[in-house]
């Protein structure tokens, strides 16, 4: 059984802050969805046996309690206003407080805030390292500790690299601002899929665009896309946008040569094959 973590919270009994009281929830997991274990936010649903579900799980299981259905019981979920009100009244410090976030949030905002928080920690992309920090510190760490494991580049300028025959994650680091990008390379039954992510806390639309060219003697393929942000590398990362280089496309050389350019603020993408 997992140990209960303790979390100090403000238990406001009234919207007037003067009437608030402090309490400790000995097991904050009771405020998580019983199915997906993510923090609850309104609307919240409950079955008559006391199982709590978030709105995502409620829709996913067609308004029926998933826990009860495992025991062959078909029980419809109902809105649980008590828990919704409770979530709205509980205030907690941002879970990224230790990384510098000063925000106090209601528990019902925890789920969204964790995704948006600019202090969300990012994981070092080096395969043998478990360092975790905000993006600026991670960039410095990578420059200091893994200097030989990166390819340096400058925004707006083309650079060339060759892919090995196996799946790999290549770390790219910008010359001036030290931001870290990842070139993902994954073998599929159709060929080799490649794309680029930026390591960053914010998961909204990226301000960074990139172009990848794969050239052979007779033709070339190009992907023009925006670099989605990721907080950690789970190899391989392939978003909906990637360049598929068909098997045998570049068969004159033992490795696949790519030309790459990373720039600011390019959000549209285009895949073209020029013959
Ligand atoms: Zn859920
Ligand atoms: Zn149930
Ligand atoms: Zn935060
Ligand atoms: Zn590291």
Automatic annotation (TrEMBL):
The keyword DNA-binding does not apply. SUPFAM superfamilies: TRAF domain-like. Pfam families: Sina_ZnF (PF21361). This is SIAH-type domain-containing protein. CDD domains: RING-HC_SIAHs. GO terms for molecular function: zinc ion binding. Residues 89-147 form the SIAH-type domain. The lineage of its organism: Eukaryota, Viridiplantae, Streptophyta, Embryophyta, Tracheophyta.
């Amino acid at each position: 059984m997992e140990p209960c973590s303790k979390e100090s919270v403000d238990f406001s009994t009234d919207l007037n802050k003067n009437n608030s009281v402090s309490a400790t929830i000995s097991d904050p997991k009771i405020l998580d969805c019983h199915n997906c274990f993510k923090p609850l936010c309104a609307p919240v649903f409950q079955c008559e046996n006391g199982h709590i579900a978030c709105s995502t799980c409620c829709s996913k299981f067609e308004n029926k309690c998933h826990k009860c259905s495992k025991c062959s019981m078909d029980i419809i979920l109902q809105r649980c206003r008590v828990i919704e009100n409770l979530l709205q009244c509980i205030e907690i410090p941002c879970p990224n407080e230790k990384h510098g976030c000063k925000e106090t949030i209601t528990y019902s905002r925890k789920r969204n805030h964790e995704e948006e928080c600019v202090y969300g920690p990012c994981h070092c992309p080096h395969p043998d390292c478990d360092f975790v920090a905000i993006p600026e510190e991670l960039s410095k760490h990578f420059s200091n500790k893994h200097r030989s494991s990166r390819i340096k580049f400058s925004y707006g300028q083309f650079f060339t690299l060759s892919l090995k025959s196996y799946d790999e994650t290549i770390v790219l680091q910008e010359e001036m601002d030290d931001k870290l990008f990842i070139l993902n390379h994954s073998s599929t039954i159709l060929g080799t899929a490649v794309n680029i992510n930026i390591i960053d806390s914010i998961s909204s639309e990226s301000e960074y665009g990139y172009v990848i060219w794969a050239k052979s003697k007779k033709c070339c393929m190009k992907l023009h896309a925006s670099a989605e942000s990721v907080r950690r590398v789970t190899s391989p990362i392939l978003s909906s946008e990637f360049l598929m280089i068909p098997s045998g496309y570049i068969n004159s050389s033992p490795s696949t040569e790519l030309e790459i350019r990373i720039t600011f603020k390019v959000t549209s993408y285009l895949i073209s094959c020029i013959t």
